[in-house]
Amino acid sequence: MHRVALVSGLLASLLSSLSACDHADDSVGATPDASACVGLPVAGPSPRGEVAGVIDATRDRFVVFGGNVAAPVNCMPMTDIVDEVWAFDLACGAWQRLTPTGGPGPRARHAVALDATHDRMLVFGGRTHPGSTYTNYADVWSYDLATDAWTAVSTTGTGPSPRSSATAVYDATHDRLLVFGGNTSTSGLVLTGTNDLWSLDLATGAWTAITAPNPPSPRLFHAAAIVGGDMVVYGGTPSFDGPFLDDAFALDLASTTWRPIAGSGPGARFGSVLVASGTTAVAIGGHDGTALGNRNDAWSLAPSTGAWQQLRPGDTLHGTGAACSFPPDFTIPEANSPERRYAFAAASTATDLWIFGGKTDCGVVNDVWRLDGSTATWQLVRPATGGEACNRTGNTACTTLCY
User: Fold this and answer.
1) Single pTM value for the model
2) CATH code, 276
3) Which of 143, 162, 166, 366 is least buried, going by the fewest C-beta atoms within 10 A?
4) pLDDT tens digits for range 92-107
5) CA angle, 169 as apex, 145 and 109 as ends, to 5°?
6) How do residues 151-208 score in pLDDT, each as one tens digit?
7) At 96, phi and psi to the nearest 5?
8) Domain for residue 79, yes or no?
């Protein structure tokens, strides 16, 4: 990977094209209406990974759904998938458990998209673990952000096969949900990536397979976002054994044609997030094939030019680990930055990017962080109750990275 110089100064190239929106001030430092914060619960969601969410700008909150709350045991992954819906008030800095009836049921590795046109969060696919194998889904659900109510989206025609670790984005111009790639395997030991592209017409409920030349290779655990007139896809992996992918592609939404995006950026990884910010996309975290593994760096990508810019360097590899055994000095943490992670929730307001949860070297986390769009700095908004490395929490009694 060719290293790119760290961006200095303001994030003009990242967020300058964004205009201020007319919803409540979403900076944590803002002084909210005191009455609006009274009575909000103190406790928040337990640590979790494989979770997803959207920013509800009208109500100034970060709404997240589902996830896997089980932490690894002796370095072996565990599964406890939930159907919880939580809302984080951006001004008050407080969580609230929402209790809608019905809904998709427990889901992890599902895909969500904000449909601002209809004031809802759309959920596609994902998986549960009811027995010895996983169950994948291909259904679509609507979460009404105004009423906090679930509704199943009725669809017609042949649609995508059941899958997890796919991406879904809302194309407002054509009022459609675009689903790309994902894992069709139900085995915990086998991952089977795909590269099919599907369009769900949200006015008619009709699924259509889109066959476009020169698509990205099959993949799962990739990231995608709408940037201008393109759907941008980055990274992922085709199978359990890799290889991890470092490429990026753009789907022209008007002509439904793919084009590769040239340029070198974060490098090969899966489980990162990609969030649109004006004419650029921001990629954060993920898991790569180097000795460092989980990452917490941040990059911006301009699809029109293929230019990547590093926004935050993230932690630096320092020690040597082997087979899930890491020394206390395994990394040199970047000061005032989130723990290295993948499979977490991310969404943006008009000025900032927010993240929640994820899977780490030390388990799963439930912290909330905000990336300031004007200074390119992280702000811890809600601390984690577990899952962080000792060299980040300041616990000097640890004999390993985590304990």
Assistant:
1) 0.91
2) 2.120.10.80
3) 162
4) 999 999 999 999 999 9
5) 85
6) 999 999 999 999 999 999 999 999 999 999 999 999 999 999 999 999 999 999 999 9
7) -140, 125
8) no
Residue 130 lies in a domain: no
Distance CA(168)–CA(178), nearest Å, equals 5
| Cβ-contact 117, 129 below 8 angstroms | no
Alpha-carbon distance of 135 to 129, in angstroms, equals 6
Tally the domains of the chain. 1
Q: SS3 sequence, the chain? A: CCCCCECCCCCHHHHCCCCCCCCCCCCCCCCCCHHHHCCCCCCCCCCCECCEEEEEHHHCEEEEECCECCCCECCECCCCECCCEEEEECCCCEEEEECCCCCCCCCECCEEEEEHHHCEEEEEEEEECCCCCCEEEEEEEEEECCCCEEEECCCECCCCCCEECCEEEEECCCCEEEEEEEECCCCCCCCEEEEEEEEEECCCCEEEEECCCCCCCCEECCEEEEECCEEEEECCECECCCCCCCCEEEEECCCCEEEECCCCCCCCEECCEEEEECCEEEEEEEEECCCCCEEEEEEEEECCCCEEEEEECCCEECCCCECCECCCCCEECCCCCCCCEECCEEEECCCEEEEEEEEECCEEEEEEEEEECCCCCEEEEECCCCCCCHHHHCCCCCCCCCC
Q: In this predicted model, what pLDDT tens digit does every residue of 266-288 receive, in sequence order?
A: 999 999 999 998 899 999 999 99
Predicted pLDDT at 373: 81
The reply to whether 28 falls in a domain is no
State the pLDDT at residue 262: 82
pLDDT at 349: 94
**Measured between alpha carbons, how far is 90 from 111 in angstroms, rounded to an integer?**
22
Residue range of the domain that includes 352? 12-22+157-393
- The mean predicted confidence, pLDDT, of the chain is 90
Residue 203 lies in a domain: yes
Q: Which pLDDT band holds residue 59 (cuts at 50, 70, 90)? A: very high
pLDDT value at position 7? Answer: 32
CA angle 363, 121, 386 (to 5 degrees): 15
pLDDT for position 75 = 78
User: Which residue, 347, 345, 341, is CA-closest to 388?
Assistant: 341
